[in-house]
Amino acid sequence: MSYKKLLVVFVISLLLMLVVTFNLSTNAEVEQTDFNIRLQQIASGLSSPLYVTHAGDESGRLFIVEQTGKVRIFRNGTLLTDPFLDISSLISFGGERGLLSVAFHPHYSSNRRFFVNYTRAGDGATIIAEYRASTDNPNRAEPDGRVVLMIPQPFSNHNGGQLQFGKDGFLYIGMGDGGGAGDPIRAGQDIENLLGKMLRIDIDSGSPYSSPRDNPFFGATPGRDEIFALGFRNPFRFSFDRKTGELYAADVGQNRREEIDIVVRGGNYGWNRMEGSLCFSPMSNCDRTGLTLPIAEYGRDLGCSVSGGYVYRGKLLPEIDGVYFFGDFCTGRIFGFKDRTFREMLKTELNISSFGEDEDGEVYVVNLAGTVSRIVAPAPRCLLTCPEDVEVADTDGDGSEVVSFDLPKSLGECNTLSFSRASGTTFPVGTTPITVNSSTGNATCSFNVIVRPANFCSLTCPKDIEVIDEDGNGSEVVNFTDPKLIGNCGSISYSTSSGSVFPIGVTRVVANSSVNQGTCIFNVTVRPKPDTTAPTVRIISPNGGEKVRKGEAFTINWISSDNTSLRGHDILLSIDGGATYPIKIAEGLSGSSQSFVFTVPNDQEKTKAAKVRVIAIDGSGNRGQDDSDTSFRIRKRN
User: Fold this and answer.
1) H helix or E strand, kind and range, residue 584
2) Is the whole model's pTM more than 0.85, yes or no?
3) Which of 326, 339, 348, 567 is within CB 3.0–4.6 Å of 309 for a Cys-Cys bond?
4) In this structure, are residues 622 and 537 in contact, taking their beta carbons and an 8 Å threshold?
5) Which residues have a Cβ under 8 Å from the Cβ of 353 and sit 6 or more positions away?
């Protein structure tokens, strides 16, 4: 972000208090929905907060990233004192450097894996690192992580920094162009450079990762395998619409345009040929071939550094469902975009460093000065979510039972709650409906209290269990918890007991009660350990004793392990250490040979030495290559 411009633009912003509606096209219609919102502060006293997100584990926790090197937890209305993660000693902090974001694995609740993006102490390189939550304390992370990806940074600014998992399960990484005015190293359009790109990697295969095969430059195609899209200056915050899956990115401009893009695979978003919809290099008559223009942009009259946000899919404000929120760091303006139109929704005094989203789709605004606020309706509003039906047994057989239940989950400003029947009172055998009302916001919800007779047994088994065969021996010891019991059930028997050895595949576990015919079922799934071993490759021919004339066909023969699972091969042919000619063999071909005609270029008049390298890709995406530098002679035609 362009922090140096803050004071100048702040003065300008004082003159721009008028709420304006912006139209991107002469054919677009101004959105008529009432967009009024306000901010409800939930946390303060933070150290340069840059991001807020959730873990997707149904815990209701918010995780707040502090640029100084900590990830903090906000839970049940309280900011916990002890950090979830503290890597302050590892980072370079200041300006646009520091701990920049965190992303939780889609299966975090079972594998405890999460990833952070930070600039490394010493050289300021971008580091993508993996950590795990503690097994003993879910509010603390294990202190040691592993580096997944390191990207050198030539300057201190334009680091991007956002991490997000897509619906495809892959990790997306937003990278700025490396800094310096005007992209001096021209990283934005350089497909051999990871800077100025949107990257996409698979952190569940490879070592330490692999690249999805449908990335636009994967394999023999020139360009880095990790690149998903290119042409960015500094994509400061991107996000996925949880309903449509669309990827929105905010790209900070040089000095004329701040832009919002819909990012697609292989898209080129222009930098540094263009800045937004304007030519940049050159300043006029630039080549726009193959470039994708922004869906929204604004100039220096409204701000100087865009901060990307989220498409609203929450429950508190259904009238703004589908509105994409974004803001400006310099002026504190919050904008909303929908149906090709965006408008200013709120003018604040905040330094908006980011937006965030909780598990319910509610959107938050992060203020670099130390606060996090939630977007809410202008008037008090309340949403109640009652607990699930409560089921108990008449333990003494007298026809009734004392039942206690949890309070409803509330969103918004609900104040006091009233119940049609209070917790902790006596309920008769049968079903009693409970209704809950809020004193403000006109919210209501309901659930049932069910008292079963004494001669009743109900079992609720644990959820299906999924583990990995860690030692690769075809089975795994699996422990599980006992079912939840209601009523008189006696002892519980299992078709396969906890602590048993379960084979690879799905095993159905049945639990039965010794009395009153209670039963329940769940599955234990043991998955094979992912293959991380690269295939070995050995070239048989050609060899140093072979000679091939220009234009003649010759056959490359090789042997590789994992031959039955090979997904494809790449062949690289180089002449005297000069130009390299990639030859892609069609996916699905296994076997150990391939014939093709190679013609020495016309300017190669003298006898040349050629080298062949074969790269094999197995079914798990692991790559192996022959490094023996097999060489042979190419003779010119007589």
Assistant:
1) strand 580-585
2) no
3) 326
4) no
5) 1, 48, 49, 50, 51, 307, 329, 366, 367, 368
